[in-house]
From TrEMBL, chain A:
CDD domains per UniProt: fer2 (cd00207)
Pfam families to which the protein is assigned, alphabetical: CO_deh_flav_C, FAD_binding_5, Fer2, Fer2_2
UniProt keyword list: FAD, Flavoprotein, Iron, Metal-binding, Oxidoreductase
Domain (2Fe-2S ferredoxin-type): residue spans on this chain: 1-88
UniProt name for this protein: Xanthine dehydrogenase small subunit
Family matches, as NCBIfam families: xanthine_xdhA
Entry-linked PANTHER family: XANTHINE DEHYDROGENASE
InterPro entries, sorted: 2Fe-2S-bd (IPR002888), 2Fe-2S-bd_dom_sf (IPR036884), 2Fe-2S_ferredoxin-like_sf (IPR036010), 2Fe-2S_ferredoxin-type (IPR001041), 2Fe2S_fd_BS (IPR006058), Ald_Oxase/xanthine_DH-like (IPR016208), Beta-grasp_dom_sf (IPR012675), CO_DH_flav_C (IPR005107)
Residues of the FAD-binding PCMH-type domain: 223-396
Automatic annotation (TrEMBL), chain B:
Highest taxon of the lineage: Bacteria
Family as reported in the entry's similarity comment: Belongs to the xanthine dehydrogenase family.
The keyword Oxidoreductase is assigned to this record: yes
Limits of the Aldehyde oxidase/xanthine dehydrogenase a/b hammerhead domain: 33-140
Protein name according to UniProt: Xanthine dehydrogenase, molybdenum binding subunit apoprotein
Key words, A-Z: Molybdenum, Oxidoreductase
Species of the source: Marinobacter salarius
Pfam family, one: Ald_Xan_dh_C
Skewed-composition ranges (Polar residues): 10-20
Keyword check for Oxidoreductase: yes
Ranges for region Disordered: 1-20
Length: 519, 788
């Protein structure tokens, strides 16, 4: 059984197909149709819901994150509070709803519920922090919501206006448009918030939170008529046991990639082991040598930790997926998925990151670059799982450059990602690691170019020699994201950009070098 | 007699929400609460089945065998059908034949539906549809417009428009340039995918809920495949989650297949396309291969032009005849071509049949002449804006290449105003300085106009009907043939009705578009929704008002002209009655309070034999000034600022109109920049989902975005309250971004070289343009302005 709350009301599920997405559960089992399917691949945001989880940083509170419900599976709801647009029907309306109406932010209206929920999450988060989001935060919150009608200007305006208002919800009953009563398929009561509680009080209902905290310490499981299973272990030990017992079961963390097998390839996965309930996997440990990210740490959670060590992570992580994806996607999932273009692995390889693989037999550590064997092939053994990754701290003479190139700036998969770690002694390159995504079947180091740099003066001629080496050692493919020729030309130019950027530090003419810097 | 409803008088105030006010979208509150129902949100009838189709995996092939046994055997499957099982017509081509509802012996594109499945769940139907075993004998496939031109494969005959003697003008012109370009297609990416729900009726007919811009055509085609008279089929469209032309003809196949499955099973059938299926199976904007040969004087003014536009139509005609016509009509955009020949080809390819998309070929035609304007400027060392201004239509140079006279010259002043308000000249200077000082990033600026012809070029479509009822409580029910896809048509026409009676807008309720309320309607397309349906609704209102005036004059012994509708009242001479009170009086006196209305557009004609006529009632105009910044290392770019001034005549709803302009601009920008349709060498669409097909996201909206409506510009033609159509024209404002990208790249040559830049101008194509420019500079033996 899994146990969670939907719009303030307790739900217990047992006999449910573990391949069911939250979206399909809402729309087909609960007949709550406010949440829309636009793509079923986590790219458009029409299905955005908000999920509350006990927040380790604020004990006793739930933190609410926007999530693509189309690629989040029901099993992942164990111990969570799911909030959907169907809950926001009371008078007075939530400020984001009022402003979306008044700014004419909805035209066809199909993306609107998702936009409402993304803005609702932002509003809730900033209200909890007592802050007002700036435009960057607003755009980031909406980065995973496509709108085809408005051109976004009125939506941005609505977000700006709403986020300076407080939500003072009424206690009245829901406003039902006459043509759209909210009832379950069997005439069940509408899924409205718990009576007597509203607004923040309803989102932070102490009884619900106490229940969720206790649920979090228990394992959840789903089964269905086909014998399909979803296990949601609560501890590392339980996970080790499950991995030993069911070596063919698929591990699922954020599910932002694995779920596509279900929703796009229409596969039925017969056994899933959900990792999001295991606290140890979400821990971050820091010491003077480096930082250890548990495999379940989300992009959102690692963002500041990495950016403060290696500033180039900031702009890259801001462009990795969308806000909804960054709320769910994990470093372990990104590595385990072994995509040739995953944006984190090249950066981590450039840093010399190491990986822990765990099992009942113990933990083994290996260099991340040794983990990838071939296209989607890794060193992970059937009963193992990724425990975490260790990333060294920067020394004063080290610098990391990460450049992502994609067709669209936000929420797009890279054509090329270049990550360059340089250790300099004055003008000489003492050591370096250059890693690329999108240039080969795996994230890959450019050993020839590295050799052309090591021990050489850091100047335009050396860079040119390294670029020439790059062109010899890579044979990238032509695909929907770019041609082989483009990838090669860009890979070299990214190295050139790193050179320009590093030498600009010491000159007075600081030209902007990236369109994302120019504003 | 039943009791009349209580007449609660309203205070005498100026009626609220009339035309010209910024009324909210009629569904706005439902949108934000998730309570607006789209097809898939409707309560599901008992015994509902879900449809899916099996798709061709070949671009062109003969089917030698099709084994559906595993499809039949899949759990949940209730019925499977092929074209053999269709009782009526099997060809559902909207204008010309060529679109089989399910494939026969030959398939002509990857994704073509081969058979249909009905199953107890959406997922089961889709999973089952993948289990067919189909054997193909591959046939040669033409996949591009150029391949079709080489092989002379056309879906419809080519057409020529000729004015004067272009060959002579070109030969005698002081300057002459030739060029060619590819203009990419575009996926509609309406957020609500194609969907319909069909329920059998008691007379072997069907009731169809569809997400379609053209309910009357859905009705006709469903009747034809079922072999029924049209009156056995009712079609309702409450709203669409976006259309953009993609639901003009492309919704009908779903309705036909669902209706056929409903007939076979006796059960209701829903067919909702998953995004992947929608992108693979339904038509898109035509990509074009265009060429120009232009002659111009030393001031940059065109003397003559020979232009070819060739659209990739896909395997069937669909609407391509009219789409390529519109590309031809707009290959001049806002400029007098002088002596001109324009030839349009309708290329047949073994790809999905391309279809209507906002602009309907117009944008693709305009691109070739906008490219020419920039090329002339670089050739002569002039600012592109000066070249554009000199070539605009104006008094004395007002005849288009198809013989229509441009009567209202809006653009010269509009452009001057925008040039000043956008600080074009000062920013041009600043940008040139920036580009000299910066080696990696380059900024670009462009100001481009749009002149877009308003009317369907298929003359018979320029008609509309409406139905207006006034009830005894003074509330008004409005129905018309136009469909709501988010563009605000319902609220605008409701405002027209409120204005006609001078009552508050909340008295007026617009109901779902239905074929049994208003018959034989035209698609909501060609930007004509408000022009046509607004006038039809106004006609219905005027008929009811006429009866009320006659009743008042007779009853109170006053002259007809002393009866006035104002301030939620009816004033009869010196007497004043509240609106509802007066309506009740009329009812008691047995005055009909219901009327239909009708409108047909006057003045328009076009002779295909001569290629001359007046296809458009008027032109809509606008201009955009865009500034971009380009990274010459990667080709990445960002649109930094956009200023738009657009002409909507006398606006019916400024907020709705601005929404159309902003949204159209961003959609046009997406078409020309990041939205790339990529096909494999076998004709398979590779950019088949939002992970690979990138429409603009929130951060692509220009951070500085200034949009204004041209003030004091009533339409010279007698349109509804002198407004102008606004749906399509703003899309073409996005051309300013493309031109600004070229401008930025051209700066590498100090604006002497005009780099080719096919569209979409992805970062990859922009980098290619940078490289081409650097090579040109190197060939001149001079240092580039980019010294990286």
């Amino acid at each position: 059984m899994i146990r969670f709350y939907l719009n303030g009301q307790l739900q217990k599920l047992n006999q449910v197909d573990p391949n069911l997405s939250i979206l399909d559960w809402l729309r087909t089992r609960k007949r709550l149709t406010g949440t829309k399917e636009g793509c079923a691949s986590g790219d458009c945001g029409a299905c955005t819901v908000v999920i509350g989880s006990p927040d380790p940083e604020q004990s006793g509170q739930l933190r609410y994150d926007s999530v693509n419900s189309c690629i989040a599976l029901v099993g992942s709801l164990h111990g969570k509070h799911l909030v959907t647009v169907d809950a926001l029907t009371q008078e007075p309306a939530h400020p984001v709803q009022k402003e979306m109406v008044e700014c004419h932010g909805a035209q066809c209206g199909f993306c609107t519920p998702g936009i409402i929920m993304s803005l609702f999450a932002l509003h809730t988060e900033s209200a909890a922090n007592g802050s007002v989001p700036d435009d960057d935060a607003l755009l980031e919150a909406l980065s995973g919501n496509l709108c085809r009608c408005t051109g976004y200007r009125p939506i941005i305006e609505a977000g700006r206006r709403a986020c300076v208002q407080t939500w003072e919800p009424g206690t009245g009953s829901a406003v039902l448009s006459r043509s759209s009563a909210l009832s379950g398929p069997d005439g069940a009561a509408p899924n409205n918030p718990a009576p007597g509680l509203s607004g923040i009080a309803w989102l932070q209902n102490p009884e619900m939170i106490a229940d969720l905290l206790s649920v979090q310490n228990t394992a959840g499981e789903l089964t269905d008529d086909h014998g399909y299973r979803y296990d949601a272990p609560a501890t590392l030990d339980a996970l080790r046991g499950l991995c030993r017992q069911f070596p063919k079961a698929r591990l699922i963390a954020g599910g932002t990639d694995l779920s596509l097998e279900i929703t796009q390839q229409l596969k039925d996965l017969d056994h899933l082991i959900g990792l999001s309930g295991i606290k140890e996997l979400q821990e971050i440990h820091e010491d003077e040598d480096g930082i250890y990210l548990g495999a379940g740490v989300t992009y959102r959670a690692m963002f500041h930790k990495l950016e403060e060590r290696w500033p180039h992570f900031g702009p890259m992580l801001e462009r990795l997926g969308s806000r909804q994806i960054r709320n769910r996607g994990t470093v372990g999932g990104n590595i385990g998925n072994a995509s040739p273009i995953g944006d984190m692995p090249p950066a981590l390889i450039a840093l010399g990151a190491e990986l822990d693989l765990d099992s009942v037999d113990g933990t083994r550590r290996l260099r991340l670059e040794d983990f990838f064997h071939g296209y989607k092939q890794t060193d992970l053994q059937p009963h193992e799982f990724i425990r975490g990754t260790w990333i060294p701290n920067p020394a004063p003479d080290e610098k990391l450059f990460i450049y992502k190139v994609s067709k669209r700036i936000d929420d797009d998969i890279s054509a090329v990602l270049g990550a360059f770690w340089l250790k300099r002694d004055g003008d000489t390159i003492k050591d370096c690691r250059l890693a690329f995504g999108g240039m080969a079947a795996t994230p890959k180091r450019a050993s020839g170019a590295e050799a052309a740099l090591r021990g050489q003066p850091w100047n335009a001629d050396t860079v040119a020699a390294a670029i020439a080496a790059l062109e010899l050692e890579f044979e990238p493919m032509t695909d929907v994201r770019g041609s082989a020729a483009y990838r090669l030309q860009v890979a070299g130019n990214l190295l050139r950009r790193a050179f320009l950027e590093s030498t600009q530090d010491t000159t007075t003419t600081n030209q902007p070098l990236m369109v994302t810097d120019y504003a | 007699m039943r009791k009349l409803p209580p007449n609660i008088p309203r205070p005498t105030t100026t009626a609220k929400g009339l035309t010209g006010t910024q009324a909210f979208h009629d569904s706005a509150w439902k949108h934000v609460r998730g309570q607006a129902r789209y097809i898939d949100d409707l309560p599901e009838p008992a015994e509902l089945l879900h449809a899916a189709v099996g798709q061709s995996t070949h671009a062109h092939a003969r089917i030698t065998a099709m084994d559906l046994s595993e499809v039949w055997a899949y759990p949940g499957v209730v019925s499977v059908m092929t074209v053999e099982d269709v009782p009526g017509h099997t060809d559902i081509g909207p204008v010309f034949p060529g679109d089989p509802v399910l494939a026969g012996d030959v398939v002509e594109h990857v994704g073509q539906p081969l058979f249909a499945v009905a199953a107890t769940s959406h997922r089961a139907a889709r999973q089952a549809a993948r289990l067919a075993k189909v054997s193909y004998e591959p046939l040669p496939a033409a996949l591009t417009a150029e391949a079709a031109l080489d092989q002379q494969l056309f879906v419809r005959p080519s057409h020529t428009q000729l004015r004067g003697d272009p060959d002579k003008a070109l030969a005698e012109a002081p300057n002459r340039l030739q060029a060619q370009m590819h203009v990419g297609g575009q996926e509609h990416f309406y957020l609500e995918g194609q969907a319909c729900l069909v329920e059998p009726t008691e007379d072997a007919g069907v009731f169809v809920h569809t997400s379609s811009q053209h309910p009357s055509e859905v009705q006709k085609l469903v009747a034809e495949v079922l072999d029924l008279p049209i009156h056995e089929v009712q079609v309702e469209v409450r709203r669409m989650g976006g259309g953009f032309g993609g639901k003009e003809t492309q919704a009908a196949p779903l309705a036909c297949i669902s209706a056929l499955l409903a007939r076979r099973t006796g059960r209701p059938v829903k067919y909702r396309m998953a995004r992947y299926d929608d992108m693979v199976q339904t038509g898109k904007r035509h990509d074009f291969f265009n060429t120009y040969d232009i002659g111009f004087d030393n001031e940059g003014v065109l003397r003559g032009a020979d232009i070819m536009v060739a659209g990739r139509c896909g395997f069937s005609p669909d609407l391509s005849d009219a789409i390529v016509d519109r590309a031809m009509f707009h290959s001049d955009n806002a400029y007098s071509l002088g002596q001109a020949r324009v030839v349009g080809h309708r290329c047949k390819t073994h790809t999905v049949s391309n279809t209507a998309f906002r602009g309907f070929g117009g944008p693709q035609g305009m691109m070739i002449i906008e490219r020419a304007m920039d090329d002339i400027a670089r050739h002569l060392g002039m600012d592109p804006l000066d070249v554009r201004k000199r070539n605009l239509y104006g008094p004395g140079r007002d005849v288009t290449h198809y013989g229509q006279i441009v009567e209202q010259h809006v653009l010269p002043d509009l452009i001057d105003t925008l040039e000043a308000s956008s600080d074009y000249r000062q920013r041009r200077t600043e940008i040139s300085r920036f580009n000299k000082e910066n080696s990696i990033l380059k900024r670009g600026l462009a100001l481009t106009p749009v002149k877009f012809g308003i009317s369907f070029t298929a003359k018979h479509l320029n008609q509309a009907g409406a139905l207006v009822h006034v009830y005894t409580d003074g509330s008004i029910h409005l129905n018309h043939g136009g469909t709501e896809m988010g563009q605000g048509l319902y609220i605008k026409v409701a405002q027209v009705v409120a204005a006609a009676f001078q009552v508050d807008l909340d008295r007026v309720k617009v109901s779902a578009t239905r074929t049994d309320k208003v018959p034989n309607t035209s698609p909501t397309a060609a930007s004509s929704g408000t022009d046509l349906n607004g006038m039809a609704a106004l006609d219905a209102c005027e008929k009811i008002k006429q009866r009320l005036v006659e009743f008042a004059a007779e009853t109170y012994g006053v002259s007809a002209d002393s009866v006035r509708f104002e301030n939620n009242q009816v004033n009869v001479g010196e007497q004043q009655f509240g609106w509802a009170e007066f309506v009740q009086q009329a009812y008691m006196a047995r005055v009909s309070l219901s009327s239909n209305g009708f409108y047909s557009t006057p003045k328009i004609h076009y002779d295909r034999e001569t290629g001359q006529g007046r296809p458009f009632l008027y032109y809509a105009n606008g201009a955009a000034c865009a500034e971009v910044v380009v990274d010459t290392l990667t080709g990445e770019y960002k649109t930094m600022r956009v200023d738009i001034l657009h002409d909507v005549g006398q606006s019916l709803n400024p907020a709705v109109d601005i929404g159309q302009i902003e949204g159209g601009f961003v959609q046009g920008m997406g078409w020309l920049t990041t939205e790339e349709l990529v096909y494999s060498d076998e004709g398979r669409l590779l950019s088949n989902g939002p992970a690979t097909y990138k429409i603009p996201a929130v951060s692509d909206a220009p951070p500085d975005f200034r949009v204004a409506l041209l003030p004091h510009s009533p339409n010279r033609e007698a349109t509804v309250f002198r407004s102008k159509a606004v749906g399509e024209p703003p899309l073409m404002l996005g051309m300013a971004v493309w031109s600004a990208l070229r401008d930025a790249v051209s700066s590498v040559s100090d604006y002497r070289y005009s780099p080719p830049l096919d569209t979409p101008a992805t970062p990859e194509r922009v980098l290619q343009a940078v490289t081409a420019t650097e090579r040109w500079v190197a060939a001149q033996g001079e240092p580039s302005c980019k010294n990286a």
